[in-house]
Structure formats: C-alpha cells, structure tokens
Amino acid sequence: MKTRQEAERNHEIKVGLTILIGIIILVFAILSVGEQQGILSDRYKLRVLMSRVNGLQTGAPVRLAGVRVGSVIGVQFAGDLDDQKIEVTLEIDKKVQQRIREDSEAHIGTLGLLGDKFIGLTMGSLDRPMLNNNELLKSSDPIDLEKLMDEGVEVVESLKKASVEITEISEKINRGKGSIALLLNDPRFYMDLDRLLRLVELLGKKINDGQGTLNMLLSDSVFTRNLALSVENIQVVSDSLRTGQGSASRLVMDPKLYNDLSIAINRVNRVIDKVDKGEGSLGQSINDKALYEDMVRVTMELDSLVKDIRKNPQRYLKVEIF
Q1: d(Cα 276, Cα 283) in Å, to the nearest integer?
Q2: CA-CA distance, 83 to 40, in Å (whole number)?
Q3: DSSP tag of 124
C-alpha cells in the first residue's frame, strides 16, 4: 500500500507534466501564429503619405496582391505643419521586398461588410529600383465616402424633382393642356403626319421604280458629270482665291483695292451727309421746299403747254407759202 508521501509525489508529477504539456502547446501556438503573421520573420519599414485614411488604424493588415505581408504600425500627421498629409508607417516581411519596387502603389481597401480597413500594395516592375527600409511608397487617396454619399443624396433629390416634373407634364398632356398635348391629341396632326409619311413612301417608291424628275437627275450620267465638273470648277476658283491667283483673287486679297474702296465709300457717305443737311447745290435742290414747288409748277406748266400745242398746233405754228 502506497504511503501518503508517495501519493503526493505522484500528484506533483502529474501536475508538473500537465503544466509542461500546456507550456509546450502554448509555445507551439505562439510559434505557429508568429510564423503565419510574420512576427518572427525579418521585417523592414516603408512610409506612405495620404490626404486621408478613412479610419485606418494601427495593426491593420498590409496585403501585396491580396496576400498578407505585414501590418500598419503607425498612423500620424506629418511633422511639418505646412504638410497636410498623413504619414502611414508599414512593417513588411523582407521576403517580399524584391516584389515591391519604385512603381508599386499603396491604397486603402475595405474588408468585408464590417468595413475593416487594410493597406493594399501592387506588384512592382522588375526593371525598377527596389524600395529599401524607411523609403517612401507611392499612394492613391481613398474615395471620400461621406462626400460621395452627400453627392448621392443630391442626385436622388434631383431625380425626385425630375420625377415630379415629368408626372406634372404627363398629367397636363392627359388633360389636353399645352402645345405637346394639342399635338398628341389633335386628330388633324395625326392625319397630316400620316399624309406626309404616305407622300414620302410614294416618293421613295417612284425613285426606286425609276420614275420622276429626281430619279432622272440621279440616274442621268450627263447630269452627274456636269455636277462633278461644277464642283471641280468651284474648287479651282476657291483655290485660286486662297493662293492669290487671278483677277478675282486680286480684287479680294489686294489691300490697296480695299483701301480705295473704303475711301470711296467714305466720300459717298460725306456727300450723302451734306445732301441730308441741305449743303451744296444738290442738297439745296433736294431739301429746298420753295425750289421744289417751283420745279413742280414749271413741270405742270410745261405739261399744259405740250397738251395745248397738241390740241391747237396752228396757234403756235404758222406756215406761209409765197
């Protein structure tokens, strides 16, 4: 039969073995988690500057092409007050350092429906320099969700207003109010439109059947050649005007002719102004009322004289025969 001391010793051995097994399991778990998270692997740091981080926090994962390669160890404002950027410090496994190059880019992404943030990195080109410890990584600012939601609300409000206006227009059309309603509800408009469509259909049928003047013009090779020749002549004239060749081009392009024409027009305008003001012989003859009345009286007297001569020529013409 076992003594009391042997029983206590066996109990202590069992407790010690249990604790030892627990410690071994704990160490194994720590090593396994550390290996998965990269805690025990060699790491290096990279910096990212962003205008906003949208709730990114320290400890957020860093993913390279979707694979976790590190974590965020710092989110803070830049030291310079003039710099409005936020500096994010990343700790990345050195095993992937060869894949992160100068043209790699960092962005903030969202995990799942809960909205947890992470830093996503893109693969770099092998012909670009590799980024070393504490160097700056290119970045793209995340979408401002609050601003986007505000704009979305404004768009929804605009759509509501447009829907109300469309509903009002539809009601007016149904009640027969407005020009559109008159056009849609007026049977004469429908009949005129139907008549027009029939006319167009008939015209198209005649053209297809080779009837009518239009079809003759389109089918006549002589007319087509003459039309092409006319277009070519117009093009030649246009080219000559543009290049300064020919009399017409000189009339259009010669600045001396323009100046002479401008001077002549100014002179004519001055003469017209003088006539309007009654200056000069022509102006007086046109604007002098007494002179106008005298000319009318003389004209009337001459007209009476001519009529009297035609009526009584013997009064003015005497013929004597010796």
Answers
A1: 7
A2: 35
A3: P
Kind of pairing between the strands at 67-77 and 86-93: antiparallel
pLDDT beyond 60 at 268? yes
Q: Inter-axis angle of helices 187-209 and 178-185, to 10 degrees? A: 60
The two three-digit tokens of residue 188, written as one number: 């004469």
pTM listed for this prediction: 0.40
Angle between helix axes 221-243 and 246-253 (nearest 10 degrees) is 50
Confidence at residue 198, expressed as pLDDT on a 0 to 100 scale: 85
Q: Are 275 and 283 in contact (CB under 8 A)?
A: yes
Q: Is 244 helix (H, G, I), strand (E, B) or coil?
A: coil
At residue 271, the 3 state secondary structure works out as helix
Between 88 and 311, the more confident residue is: 88
pLDDT at 91: 92
Q: Locate 267 and state its tokens.
A: 């002179």
Q: What angle do CA 15, 19, 22 make, to 5 degrees?
A: 140
pLDDT at residue number 282: 64
Whole-angstrom distance, CA of residue 20 vs CA of residue 1? 29
What residue has token string 């943030």? 117
- In the DSSP assignment, the letter for residue 99 is G
